[in-house]
Amino acid sequence: MTSDNREQEIEALKARVLGGDLTPDTLRALANAQEAQSAEAAMKELLVVGRRVRVPRGEARARAMVSSLNGDGTIDVVYFDSDAEATVRCEEALALEPFEEEEGKEMSQDAKILKERGSILFKLKDYVAAAECYKRGLDSMKRQYRLSVGALVMLNYRNALRVGTASCLEETSVDVSYEDGSPDDDDVPRRAIVAVLPPDQETRILMLTTYLNLARCASHVGRNKDAVVCATLAAGIAQHDEHTDHLITAKILRSRAHLAQNHLKQALRDSAAATELAPSDHKSVQLLARDVERAKRAALRANKQLAKEVSTWVQSAQSKFAEQGGNEADCAQQ
């Protein structure tokens, strides 16, 4: 409906109301028409060539720039992060969030605010934009908490992920002590320090949940190696602070990221750990265990099929070799 036709419809409905027609149907029709007029005006303002919008991309959404108005109820857009083009329906385009318009201005560096903004974008299924907010939040905390004597650190050392306190810093190494009474680790290479953690538990929870959300974003866009890293860091914090629920979530996310990469052994390990930690009626853990078991059975079937194919190929090669006057035992040794 054109804007003129919409205006005529509204004026006609208003005249009926002023004439005494106060029936629910008429009042509802007037309200619907006025709401539609407001939506059409907002859409007209939004759909301008060069305007930044959020539009569908597969099952998710992504930021893009309007490149053309087609006049048939569709627009052409160019995605920000890939230069790929697409044609989408006008009604599928959404305005960016107000805080996203801060780009080019002074953007917030508050980790808590950035996590909240990332969560808003995550709910909109714009996982790339959400991940950017989560990363900025983590970068802000990394700048605030640097490696120093007395700092709480997470290290990947001697095939274990542990949290301890830096007791001495050298140019290329760190001495680390542990609260649980374990022997200190001296001369730990600095590259083994994977994170410096906030000293207070509240901020550590903020870091932990931000890593979990970033792992979710990475999984949604197929960056499963990144999802494994983020889930691992989250698990390290959760285990240190004894946040069982968050630790279960980290194990689930990491197991699914491994499963997506066909790392069945690692997926089974994390699934088993989540099952051991979680109550017996934990739905997400149950679904994970089911999916991992299915993948395990599929892998076993595939291996059996491969073994049969190799056996058939070997038998065929031996037969041909024998037909040509050779010895089958010699063929097997070639």
Keywords, separated by commas or semicolons:
single chain, 334 residues, alpha+beta, 5-stranded antiparallel beta sheet, 10 strands, 55% helix, disordered C terminus
Question: Brief overview, please?
Answer:
The protein is α+β, with helices and mostly antiparallel strands and about 325 residues long.
Please, could you describe this protein's structure?
The chain is of the alpha+beta class and 334 residues long. It has helices at 3-18, 24-46, 111-123, 127-144, 201-220, 224-241, 244-260, 264-277, 283-323, 328-332; strands at 52-57, 60-69, 74-79, 85-89, 94-95, 152-157, 160-169, 173-177, 185-189, 193-197. The strands form two sheets. A five-stranded antiparallel sheet has the order 4-3-2-1-5. Strand 7 and strand 8 form a beta hairpin. The protein is extended and about 90 Å long. The N and C termini lie far apart (78 Å). Residues 327-334 have low confidence and may be disordered.
Helicity level, as a percent range?
Answer: 55-70%
Arithmetic mean of pLDDT: 86
Task: Please report the distance between the alpha carbons of the first and last residues.
Answer: 78 Å
Radius of gyration: 30 Å
Order of strands in the sheet with most strands: 4-3-2-1-5
Topology:
Elements: H1 3-18, H2 24-46, E1 52-57, E2 60-69, E3 74-79, E4 85-89, E5 94-95, H3 111-123, H4 127-144, E6 152-157, E7 160-169, E8 173-177, E9 185-189, E10 193-197, H5 201-220, H6 224-241, H7 244-260, H8 264-277, H9 283-323, H10 328-332
Antiparallel strand pairs: 1-2, 1-5, 2-3, 3-4, 6-7, 6-10, 7-8, 8-9
